[in-house]
Write a structure and sequence with these properties.
Blueprint lengths: L3 E4 L2 E3 L5 E7 L9 E6 L6 E6 L6 E3 L7 E6 L4 E6 L8 E7 L12 E5 L2
Parallel strand pairs: 2-10
Antiparallel strand pairs: 1-3, 3-8, 4-5, 4-9, 5-6, 7-8, 9-10
Length: about 120
Amino acid sequence: QVQLVESGGGLVQPGGSLRLSCAASRSIFRLYNMGWYRQAPGKQRELVAAITVGGSTTNYADSVKGRFTISRDNAKNTVYLQMNSLKPEDTAVYYCNRALGGSYWSWGQGTQVTVSS
């Protein structure tokens, strides 16, 4: 199993930016496609961004396209999510995990992002 630890969330005003990080406990992280997910209160968890093993291909949900950027550093076993032009509807707990097929690893505790004035 791989443990995932998300960080970087916080309270930000609309239009602001945050950079989330997700550190994996094992280097096999670099063998898997990864994604960032979010879950807002009363809603299902959704995939917002995904990145392939080598980082050459990324995919985004329509709701974040053009505002969020996913990246990874395999040497650090870390995946990032740069979030710009944040909106109140981006408020959620953000998680990372495997994406684009395969079984999930155990979910981490997530990191809370709150967009509010």
